[in-house]
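Cross-check.
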Amino acid sequence: MKHKDIIFGLDKVFESRVRLGIMSILMVNDSYDFNSLKETLNVTDGNLASHLKALEDKGLIVMEKRFIGRKPNTSYAITREGSVRFRQHLDALEDLIRNH
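Predicted model, tokenized:
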């Protein structure tokens, strides 16, 4: 393997620690609401919103807005494509660690 190929399988969309956190949480939960993501990842509203929008625009997560009682609630879930691409990214990371 050429030296430049060792990071070939890594997906650039997951380079951010916030996006890694979002995807990791959504891989193991059916859905997760905005405020819980914000609290768990310890990020600001704006920072989280921009990362969620980027992942949503790429079709990796979906947003659902609903009301719980009278309060609006926005939650997110991973898509099938998001799950596949994130697993591929994790596999590439594991390969990088194991073989280099």
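The first helix runs from residue 17 to 27. The two ends are 11 Å apart (CA to CA). Passed to J.P. for a second look.
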